[in-house]
Write a structure and sequence with these properties.
Helix content: over 70%
Keywords: Membrane, Transmembrane, Transmembrane helix
Organism: Vibrio sinensis
Number of helices: 4
Protein name: PACE efflux transporter
Largest sheet: none
Transmembrane segments: 7-28, 40-58, 79-98, 104-126
Order of helices and strands: HHHH
Strand content: under 5%
Distance between the termini: 20 Å
InterPro entries: BTP_bacteria (IPR007896), PACE (IPR058208)
Length: 141
């Protein structure tokens, strides 16, 4: 995956993640949409940077065809990614929303559980759609 595709992958992932996270947080908390939007945009910016860096390193360590990655490897990938991100985003969420670290942790944990499931599904679909798209481009040429 080249730089442009990595950026595309990260932006697509985050746009969908932000939208779905704001809806979820608005449903389960009493914070207004504006504050939640600001929080999720800041967190998504942090996550995009982390996404690029983490996946770059992960792909260097775990080589081979991505579509051949086992379910257990995909689970390890998501857990490592989200754990690293959680360490940074809890204090950010607490600061922006004006809540305690504990409240931010609980909120961020809810988002993290959702995003973990979302990331698993998103990356599985993306990897297979990418292969399909690349194969169809070769046939069209």
């Amino acid at each position: 995956m080249g730089v442009i595709e990595r950026v595309f992958h990260s932006v697509l992932f985050e746009v969908l993640a932000i939208s779905l996270s704001i809806i979820g947080l608005a449903t389960f908390t009493d914070h207004d949409i504006g504050a939640l939007s600001e929080t999720m945009i800041v967190i998504a910016t942090i996550a995009m940077i982390w996404n690029y860096c983490f996946n770059y390193v992960f792909d260097k360590i775990v080589t081979g065809e991505k579509t051949q990655r086992s379910i257990s490897l995909r689970i390890v990938h998501v857990i490592l990614f989200e754990a690293g991100l959680l360490c940074v985003t809890v204090p950010v969420m607490a600061y922006i929303l004006g809540v305690s670290i504990w409240q931010a942790f609980v909120m961020d944990l809810g988002v993290t559980i959702f995003i973990t499931i979302y990331a698993f599904i998103f990356n599985l679909v993306y990897d297979h759609a990418r292969v399909f798209f690349l194969k169809s481009q070769k046939v069209a040429i």
